[in-house]
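Record now logged for everyone:
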Amino acid sequence: MGVDVYTLIIAVSALVTAIATFYLFRETINLRKADVQFRVNDYMDSITESRHRLYDFKKNHNEWTLKERKIADEIGLKLQRIAFLCEHKYIDAETVMDDNAGVFVQSWDIIADYVRYKRDIWGEPRDASDGAWSRRHLEWFADKCKKYFENYKKQRNINVVIMEIAFFHICYNKSKRKFGIEILYPFNRQCNFFEWLFKWLI
């Protein structure tokens, strides 16, 4: 009997240790993600001024000044570094996209033709999918960010539909239970307000 109790104590201790180790490991991962995110945000903040200048560039890169081309090269290089880390999973891509997806999409849309122009000069294919290597990580991550936005919009639309259905039934049930079916229409007018409110909030 003593052996059984001793074995049970060891088993419980091992289980508690395993659970504690799991939670400690999870917290360590979360802390690392938070630290990485802070570092990424600091890095992105360091190029904010140059990036805002980029948004004022003319659409045709042939009309850019030498200074503007240098800014485009600088932004492309710095965003490329983050994209490289994401592509090779040194940092979590989802975490970066949560805060900065728009930055990558907008910046790439502005400099894409300029990058392809330089690829032509260097004898590269025009697109990363065809084997281009300069700024290929940036192009890959910008495409990933675009898909991220598309999925977000789809999910948002699904959430709106779910909330509309839920509020319709809640209002319908309340009106039928409290006031009777004859005043369903004016109560539904109140539902429309809640639907609008949740569309705005989501």
